[in-house]
């Protein structure tokens, strides 16, 4: 059998076909991203006006559970009631557990319960709240409220119903509901590209996420996604002119920019590298870790063997 002028009976030809298809897909993604950025530039002034209105909507209140667009502090008892005493767990992170919260009127939220015993601190919690208060974008999970009281560090976040991209692609139950099509994967990749463009180019100050990975991408449906978990974010772009102070290396193995651990120097390119790993994950259907090797390293090794 022949495909793109190559015989599919030859293993080397299969790798060449795969590389061609990868280039085609990346080209389509980049073209759509450029079109999106151009359209965003024409709407810049309107967005600034909208952001001003959103920031004016951030206030403190002691009324019932908040409505859309309002961020406030909560009484601990309110969040205990909304989560039914933290009964329904919908997510697990390295330093936190996430519970379903019923907000009333058929609306739901997600309460992230940060665990100090897992290495999280009050400062890190406040840093995450500070970042969440600064951002507003359709492809970023939004903050609805928070509480810091009696050893409890709680964030009430926007609820995204269809779990994570990791669960959809790499678990048995996720795949039972159907495999993502190429159109689905392209649409998800574009949504996360838009989220990163906002963080790097439009947020003030700019924000480096530092933990872009499939388990931090929550699916609205098979075509739309939001980037979540801002606990490792870093405010401000760092330069490469030698004046930058190295930072403690943070992130997830398999997604961390390979230069970052060696230098400790962080930049938006670190997120772009992680996004590249995510693209490989979407294209190949493989996890970011292959045995003791990362998917990026594994693909590099395969290319050298050819």
From TrEMBL:
Subcellular location: Cell membrane
Transmembrane as UniProt keyword: yes
One Gene Ontology term, aspect cellular component: plasma membrane
Database matches in SMART domains: S_TKc
Key words, A-Z: ATP-binding, Cell membrane, Kinase, Membrane, Nucleotide-binding, Serine/threonine-protein kinase, Transferase, Transmembrane, Transmembrane helix
EC identifiers of the protein: 2.7.11.1
Pfam family, one: Pkinase
Residue ranges of the TM segments: 12-30
Membrane topology per record: Single-pass membrane protein
Ranges for domain Protein kinase: 84-306
GO molecular function, one term: ATP binding
Chemical reaction(s) catalysed: L-seryl-[protein] + ATP = O-phospho-L-seryl-[protein] + ADP + H(+); L-threonyl-[protein] + ATP = O-phospho-L-threonyl-[protein] + ADP + H(+)
Classification via PROSITE patterns: PROTEIN_KINASE_DOM (PS50011), PROTEIN_KINASE_ST (PS00108)
Primary residence: membrane
Domain of life: Eukaryota
Identification of the protein by name: non-specific serine/threonine protein kinase
């Amino acid at each position: 059998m022949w495909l793109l002028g190559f015989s599919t009976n030859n293993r080397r030809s299969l790798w060449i076909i795969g590389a061609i298809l990868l280039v085609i897909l990346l080209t389509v993604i980049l073209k759509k991203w450029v079109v999106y950025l151009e359209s965003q530039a024409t709407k810049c002034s309107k967005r600034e006006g909208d952001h001003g209105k959103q920031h004016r909507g951030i206030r403190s209140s002691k009324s019932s559970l908040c409505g859309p667009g309002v961020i406030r502090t909560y009484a601990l008892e309110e969040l205990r009631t909304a989560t039914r005493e933290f009964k329904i767990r919908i997510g697990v992170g390295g330093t936190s557990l996430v519970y379903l919260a019923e907000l009333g009127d058929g609306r739901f939220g997600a309460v992230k319960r940060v665990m100090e015993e897992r290495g999280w601190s009050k400062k890190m919690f406040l840093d995450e709240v500070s970042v969440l208060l600064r951002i507003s974008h359709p492809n970023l999970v939004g903050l609805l409220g928070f509480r810091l009281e009696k050893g409890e560090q709680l964030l009430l976040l926007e609820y995204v119903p269809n779990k994570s991209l990791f669960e959809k692609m790499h678990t048995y139950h996720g795949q039972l509901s159907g495999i993502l099509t190429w159109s689905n994967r392209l649409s998800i990749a574009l949504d996360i590209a838009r989220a990163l463009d906002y963080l790097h180019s439009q947020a003030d100050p700019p924000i480096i996420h530092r933990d872009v990975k499939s388990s931090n991408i929550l699916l609205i449906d098979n075509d739309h996604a939001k980037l979540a978990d801002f606990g490792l974010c870093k405010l401000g772009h760092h330069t490469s002119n030698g004046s930058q102070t190295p930072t403690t290396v943070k992130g997830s193995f398999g997604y961390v920019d390979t230069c970052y651990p060696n230098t400790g120097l962080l930049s938006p390119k670190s997120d772009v590298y992680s996004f590249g790993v995510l693209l490989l994950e979407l294209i190949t259907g493989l996890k970011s870790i292959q045995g003791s090797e990362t998917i990026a390293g594994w693909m590099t090794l395969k290319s050298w063997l050819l």
